[in-house]
């Protein structure tokens, strides 16, 4: 069903993010997880004689019978969402409803459900990031030996290769992959320990000596480990670590997208995102081919970068055993952070898989600016032939500035001709030697080898080619 457009809808409801990620953060899935936790508690308590097997069976039979409208109607009266859902669930289970939530507090439900959703969301992101890395590794290998003009300070510098430039993005994203994978592995839930995390009510119910076995059952039932020490909530530093991990991923994709926007600009024109046959670039200018996907990445990544600040405040201001001032913002912060990351990866993969490379533009820019970089090769060769490094540097500097003026005037770069005509340099190197060293296209060192090594690292980390 499409969303209703008669009221405000978040862009994440329908425009940004994938359906699987939206489903994980949906109201219905959240309530399913709440009920799963209540059922897990009843199952564990049954093992200690507090609940009958028949009551557990009844709870399981109604675990999926979510009635959001009924729950919201109750919440409108009592102003407590967990208690409202609890009353609906209890009302559906005539014999077992009375034992639901025994010994628990609301955050035993909410925080454990959030931890499970965060972990599942990380799984989705890791799958998408692995796919993006696979596409990027293929592009790295394809262009590993293709020379380009590299830029420092946004000015032409020395040659590199397109594959080596792409390898920089791949290396950053591989670090993000490793970090998110670690966060996923280390993810923990609060456990079910009552109002201040002491398990005092459960100690009264089953005995202090039984608590380790009781908690082990709950952990196994929910499929997640618990923190050894908690308050009413799990430590909010976990949210901060996750937010930083997502923001780090956003930073890597932001740089890739920003670089692409620069390189898609017509004066450079080397790379471009795909442009659909019926795509419209501007309402006013029919010729426009704007980098809207890269711009969307940068726009959303800026927003994602703000979430660690909020998560830091939630962690730092969680006073004593718990305050409620993180509750409202976490209802949007957690899902939006993951939906943004989800959209960033989806968009980036589309760009990478459909990346357009203008090899003529690569060659043109190398021909225009490469000779300036190649002058360093001439300098080194001339010094090795017995020349004065400082004097030669000055001569080459003057020739380069004069050739630069020619380039700025729209004329061909005549630096090679100027150098071959310099008698002082010709005393050290003959014309053929000078022209040889002025070839900038191969002046990229071991860039291809390093690019291929990054592609291999991605394949190893993501299990590409296995099976």
List keywords for this structure.
467 residues; mainly alpha; two-stranded antiparallel ribbon; 20 helices; 64% helix
> How many angstroms does the end-to-end distance come to?
39 Å
**Got a strand count?**
4
- Describe the oligomeric state of these chains in a short phrase: single chain
Write out the strand line-up for the largest beta sheet, numbering strands in chain order.
1-2
Mean pLDDT: 93
Helix share bin: 55-70%
- Parts with pLDDT < 50 across at least 5 consecutive residues: none
Reconstruct the topology from this structure.
Layout: H1 11-14, H2 19-24, H3 27-46, H4 53-61, H5 68-78, H6 81-92, H7 106-142, E1 147-152, E2 155-161, H8 162-186, H9 200-206, H10 211-222, H11 237-264, E3 271-272, H12 292-304, H13 307-316, H14 327-353, E4 356-357, H15 359-384, H16 389-408, H17 415-420, H18 423-426, H19 431-437, H20 447-462
Antiparallel strand pairs: 1-2, 3-4
Helix pairs in contact: 3-4, 3-7, 3-10, 5-6, 7-8, 7-14, 7-20, 8-11, 8-20, 11-12, 11-13, 11-14, 12-14, 15-16
């Amino acid at each position: 069903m499409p969303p209703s457009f008669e009221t405000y809808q978040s862009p994440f409801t329908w425009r940004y993010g994938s359906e699987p990620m939206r489903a994980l953060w949906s109201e219905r899935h959240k309530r399913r997880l709440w009920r799963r936790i209540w059922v897990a508690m009843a199952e564990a308590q049954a093992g200690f004689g507090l609940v009958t097997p028949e009551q557990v069976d009844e709870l399981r039979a109604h675990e999926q019978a979510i009635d959001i409208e009924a729950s919201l109607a109750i919440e409108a009266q009592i102003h407590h969402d967990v208690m409202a859902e609890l009353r609906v669930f209890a009302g559906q289970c005539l014999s077992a409803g009375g034992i639901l939530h025994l010994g628990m507090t609301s955050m035993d439900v909410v925080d454990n459900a959030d931890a499970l959703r965060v972990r599942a969301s990380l799984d989705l992101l890791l799958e998408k990031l692995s796919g993006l890395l696979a596409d990027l590794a293929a592009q790295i290998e394809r262009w590993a030996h293709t020379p380009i003009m590299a830029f420092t300070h946004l000015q032409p510098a020395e040659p590199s290769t397109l594959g080596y430039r792409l390898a920089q993005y791949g290396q950053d994203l591989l670090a993000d992959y490793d970090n998110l994978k670690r966060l996923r592995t280390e993810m923990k839930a609060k456990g079910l320990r009552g109002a201040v995390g002491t398990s005092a009510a459960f100690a009264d119910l089953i005995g202090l000596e039984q608590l380790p076995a009781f908690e082990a059952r709950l952990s196994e039932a929910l499929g997640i480990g618990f923190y050894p020490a908690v308050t009413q909530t799990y430590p909010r530093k976990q949210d901060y670590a996750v937010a930083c991990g997502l923001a780090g991923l956003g930073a890597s994709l932001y740089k890739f997208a920003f670089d692409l926007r620069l390189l898609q600009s017509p004066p450079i024109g080397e790379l471009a995102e795909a442009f659909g046959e019926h795509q419209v670039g501007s309402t006013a200018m029919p010729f426009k081919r704007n980098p809207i996907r890269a711009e969307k990445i940068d726009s959303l990544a800026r927003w994602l970068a703000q979430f660690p600040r909020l998560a830091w405040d939630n962690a730092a201001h969680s006073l004593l055993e718990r305050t409620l001032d993180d509750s409202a913002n976490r209802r949007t912060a957690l899902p939006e952070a993951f939906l943004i990351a989800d959209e960033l990866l989806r968009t980036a993969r589309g760009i990478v898989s459909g990346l357009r490379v203008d090899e003529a533009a690569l060659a043109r820019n190398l021909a225009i600016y490469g000779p300036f970089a190649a002058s360093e090769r001439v300098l080194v060769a001339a010094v090795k032939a017995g020349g004065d490094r400082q004097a030669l540097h000055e001569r080459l500097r003057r020739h380069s500035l004069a050739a630069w003026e020619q380039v700025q005037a729209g004329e061909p770069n005549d630096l090679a001709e100027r150098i071959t005509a310099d008698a002082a340099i010709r005393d050290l190197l003959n014309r053929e030697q000078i022209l040889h060293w002025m070839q900038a296209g191969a002046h990229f060192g071991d860039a291809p080898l390093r690019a291929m090594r990054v592609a291999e690292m991605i394949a190893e980390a993501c299990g590409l080619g296995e099976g």
